[in-house]
Amino acid sequence: MKSIMRWLTQPPVDGPRSMVLLRLMAGGVFFWEGILKFVYVNQGVGRFTKLGMPFPIFTADFVGGLEIVGGLLLMAGLLTRWMAIPFVIEMIVAMLSTKISLYLGTSPLPLPPAPPKIGIWAVLHEIRSEYAQIIVVLYLLINGPGKWSLDALLARLRATQASEFIGRTALLGLVSRSSELRASS
Questions:
Q1: Helix (H, G, I), strand (E, B), or coil: what is residue 177?
Q2: How far is CA 29 from its chain centroid?
Q3: Domains: count for the chain
């Protein structure tokens, strides 16, 4: 259990600085999609009701809040792995709850405006956003947020504090040992 917590709380932060672009893309999309769930009923409660989600008001508000807060955290590179996990779950649920019925032609949501309207090609066309989001979030889950992130800043602060603590402890040990040597002579 300790190793899982360490893995979640201490992600690798030595990735390229350009990983900030992936975080901004994925985090930004989650952020604005979360806002849309509150601003437009058809994107939040209305959509969740049509899809038959349990407790659609609570579920839409919860998912919208998760997307807003989690999107901001992802963009900042803070708690990156913690946020990646619920986002992967959310994307799986989004794909399963909307694309199976699209494939079968039984979707309660409006069909795509242009062909293909149902079937595998419609699914592959309509799933592109979820696919991109889940791949980027999985990448961040595995590889961490990169050098330009708050997770990296916190890791550097922890390392500095640890080295200062070790330095103080070593100094105290030397002073104590020196005192013992003087007292014994």
A1: helix
A2: 12
A3: 1
